[in-house]
Amino acid sequence: MTTARVRGIYTTAITRLLAAAGYEVVQASDPIRERFDRSFEAVPADVSIETTRDRQGVGTSGEPDAVETITDELETLAIDTFRWTADAPRGAVFDAEVLEAGGGSGAVVDLGDGRRGFLNYDDVDGYVDEGNRYRVQVREPAPPWDDDRPRVAPALEVQGGLCTLSRDRSGVSAALRGERAEELVGMTDLLSAEVPDGWGIRWQHAAADADLKAMGTALETAADRARALEDAVADAPDEPGEPALLAALRRTEWCWFGRESRVALDDVRRRVETTMPGHHRTKAADRAASAAVDFAEAVCGSVSDTGVGDGEFPFAAVARQFGPERGDRLEIGHGKPDGRLISLGRGEVTDWDPEGKVTLERSMRGGGSYDALGTPKEEGDVAVTKFREGRWWYPTTYKAADGTSKGTYVNVCTPVELFPDTVRYVDLYVDVIRRGDGTVEIVDADELEGAVDDGLVSEDLGEKAMSVAEAVERAIDKS
Question: What is the C-alpha to C-alpha distance for residues 456 and 429, in angstroms, rounded to an integer?
Fold first, then answer.
């Protein structure tokens, strides 16, 4: 049976999903044990599922076949779940060359084939300069929609949840303190697993709940992976060469969750624990919101055996507490189905209502023309964009300095989410325009069709996008 370790704001729902699909969740946290009221084994995990830093989705890393099958399961959550394979997966080994150094906390390195990584100065002995070459390993991969680069370090290690083997450590240590740490270090002598020469052992916090058999299995599994990694790079020259991938024995896949995906995760979580409407949507909005959500659900759960029932996402309450509100500056995060995230700039929230509507105004620079509309961009132009939480489209009207309309551009996208500092969605290529003369037209339908053919957009999502575009076209024609 495939085993998985799950962490982050989606843990309860994903644990329930995986259990129902026949997977075994291991190394569970204390809250998860309490919610499911059962024991979870403290054994090695085939895959690790972790919420991304921006809380927009999850990354799944581990044994390639297991990662693929579990990501297949997550991908079916909802129509606006997107999936990508990392080209710099966790644990991959590269020869790298420093491209930019001297500022900040680290250097940008070339990993080959257009890939870039981030090398922290603290992880390197000596001065780091442009042109230096290192043999590095990916310690923390980065999702495609994030500005961050994968973090790499110039030492080999094997992470296993219960223990980590590393070439830059020696002996046996533990990430814990006190008596339990001493016990783990001492019990290592009782294990029969043989660790390759030159690798140090460090027991992680999850090992505190493991018995001797589980510790032995974990160490043996990590040792086998360490030997496999050594074999994979055995033919490489002693000194780092041109930037290139040397070994990728593990796989990392990313899932980005749209608004409907988060609603689906709410429904799954509600089968286990009291869950307010918009639970995951609220937690994804702001880190400070997590504590408020937990408190609200604890109170509701204490007064009702049935918990919080189905309902609408409480946009007004969340926005008043965390934003966005009138006067805030809001960025438009224009996601693409290939995983990129493009900023369309920031604007001022000039109107807001508790039903989830926000109006954003941006000052435009002169030069060029507005896509598809064909009208020139001029100094003094203003873009007025109207968003509504959960809607599959949003309009932007471009106005001249005197207030006359230059046309309206309606973007068809996955359901809009209005986070405190960013509007998020994934663009679905097809759009609807109304020119200054009043003519209405659907544009870029061929780009959507191409994206469906290329597998970037599912057939169901492509059909949904076209039906939305056609409905918007009819509505604008009548207005």
Answer: 11
Distance, CA of 365 to CA of 477 (rounded, Å): 30
Q: Are residues 82 and 167 in the same domain?
A: no
Give a yes or no: residue 223 inside a domain. Answer: yes
Q: Is the separation of the CB atoms in 418 and 428 below 8 Å?
A: no
Given pLDDT bands bounded at 50, 70 and 90, which one contains residue 1? confident
β-strand partners of 200: 166
pLDDT, one tens digit per residue, over 378-409 is 999 999 999 999 999 999 999 998 888 999 99
Under a CB-based contact definition with an 8 Å cutoff, are residues 48 and 3 in contact? no
pLDDT per position as a tens digit, 90-133: 999 999 999 999 888 999 999 999 999 999 999 999 999 999 99
**Count: domains in the chain:** 4
Together in a domain, 335 and 464: yes
CATH number at residue 118: 2.40.50.140
Look at residue 376 and tell me if it is in a domain.
yes
Instruction: For residue 149, give its domain range.
Output: 93-156+233-249
Instruction: Count Cβ atoms within 10 A of the Cβ of residue 295 and give its class: 0-12 exposed, 13-18 middle, 19 or more buried.
Output: exposed
DSSP count for the chain of H helices, then E strands: 11, 25
In a domain, residue 290? The reply is no
**How do residues 422-435 score in pLDDT, each as one tens digit?**
999 999 999 999 98
Confidence of residue 301 (pLDDT cuts 50, 70, 90): low
- Collapsing DSSP to helix, strand or coil, 69 comes out as helix
d(CA 289, CA 201): 38
Residue with tokens 């080999």: 156
Nearest to 13 by CA among 40, 21, 416: 21
- Number of residues assigned to the chain: 479
Q: How far is CA 194 from CA 165, 190, 199, 208, 221, in A?
A: 12, 11, 11, 21, 10
How far apart are the C-alpha atoms of 341 and 321, rounded to whole Å?
26
Report the pLDDT value the prediction gives residue 464, as an integer from 0 to 100: 98
**Is 395 in contact with 304 (CB distance < 8 Å)?**
no
Which pLDDT score, from 0 to 100, does residue 479 have? 64
Beta-strand pair 106-112/151-153 = unpaired
Rounded CA gap, 108 and 169, in Å?
25
115 and 141 Cβ atoms separated by less than 8 Å = no
- pTM, rounded to two decimals: 0.90
pLDDT tops 70 at residue 261: yes
